[in-house]
Amino acid sequence: MTRAVFGIVSVLSLLAALVFVPVAQAAAQLKNVLVFHKTAGYQHPSIPAGIDAIRTLGRQNGFTVTATADANYFTPTNLIRFQAVVWLSTTGDVLNENQQKAFEDYIAKGGGYVGIHAAADTEYDWAWYGGLVGAYFHSHPANQTARIRVEDRSNVSTSHLSQTWTRLDEWYNYRANPRANVRVLASLDESSYSGGNMGDHPITWCHDYQGGRAWYTGLGHTAESYSDPAFTKMLLGGIKIASRAANADCRPENGYTPIFDGSQASLDQWRQAGPGGFNLVDGTLVSHGGMGLLWFPVRQFSNYSVRLDWMMPGDDNGGVFIGFPDPQGDPWRPVSAGHEIQIDATDGDPTRTTGSVYSFRAPDRALRDSVLNPPGQWNAYEIAVHGQLVEVWLNGVKINEYTSNRDIAVGYLGVQNDGAGLDISYRNIRVRQDAGGGGTDFARGRPVFVSSVEPGSSHVGENAVDGNNQTRWGSVHADPQWITVDLGETRAVERVRLSWEAAYARAYKIQISPDNENWTTMYSTETGDGGVDEVLVAGSGRYVRVEGTQRATQWGYSLWDLQVIGKG
């Protein structure tokens, strides 16, 4: 299927020569950890078990542990000795102003903070600390068993966990949802227990904060937690992340929609091109044979960011493919028409190593090596495609940037199984559709009017503007048909993006109106070929209508997404 793209922004070509500016450090050696457990309120009986567990982790992993309830440890000369400070179920006001200032300076110099359970029930009058932990405690129900959703399984503190984790604890509600400011690693399923009041309920997270790094979990109320290997391994990972002894992407994540969520239902939407394939194991795609490509045929993407986790057990090979047309069963078509973001750290050609745009652009190798987790551990990619510009992040650090001369601005996504013995696993693949070239999608969530809905279906017009790439509007099987979106007020429109399902328009118009009665045509075509149409337009009005006058198939008209983009 050909891709229809109108008006790619040429200025992107100027970005190819940009110098990388992110600075990353190689994973630091973890030597000394301070466990601080002062309480000015409720004192958890589990604190001694927590101290013993962290000391055991220290003995097993080569770092010393100093445990104290004495706030006088919080001086610049003392704190600088520790790569991380664990606040173990602290409560109330535990530091004076000088001690607070010393800890702020410690974090500003790159220090690590680990908060466990009641660390969120601490220092309510110290706003800086509230920002560091991520959220303050609000309330909790009685101890009970609940189900945890593990959202980020590339993070070293949660990569050993299954997608769901059921355990007994005291489940904190928080005064505010921290999601917008932190990377949520795990959240509570409030339907699995009584007393949750947040709806979206993060329970474990990490984030970079004013020069340092913080990791927090609401788990750890019970003494039994600290003899649970799953919990103590998570805690060890949190200490490594906070101290930067392990690499992790702790940037907040918002606006992404899963296209592979670990379920068989989501895998059923994908299609294999070429030999080999993938087995589904605990929410993970595990390769076998090849060389083939598992690709997502539901829709093409433009101006987007895709994130996923990957792991190689040894010297193996794989890659993420972007911007390619329908491979028609041939895995080599994406090689020649799209780009592969390579996964293979040992290839002698730097343009064919992990983080490269395969055969075209090597990553910043020193930067890549400083943030790459070794074989057997999970890594996280973010790959952004805006027009011809490709950007690659590894574990939260930008390692590559390339402006392509290929027609990649609109295309499909896929993951490679390179061959027998070249094993690779992928999981948690999700996409955020961006407003390419800047701008706001005025149509998102706005009222929609349609000429018809396919009888007996749930494919209502609102599906085209809900931001979910797995819902769509579908019309009856007749001409003409139209969909209109009410922008709510007069808007200056610069671009309309139409993501067609298989039933698309051969001929259609894009029109604008101030009153839903008098229409001006901004664009028309009689040679539509489906896929994603990104159309540059110019007009002002409150209502935008897409009117199909000739179907390209025997079916109706079907849109995954209708975006109306402009400044404002």
Automatic annotation (TrEMBL):
Q: Which domain of life is it from?
A: Bacteria
Q: Coiled-coil intervals in this record?
A: none
All copies of the F5/8 type C domain together span 431-567
Signal among keywords: yes
Q: What Gene Ontology molecular-function terms does this entry list?
A: hydrolase activity; transferase activity
- InterPro entries named in the record: AL/BT2_dom, Class_I_gatase-like, FA58C, Galactose-bd-like_sf, ThuA-like
Q: What is this protein called?
A: Type 1 glutamine amidotransferase (GATase1)
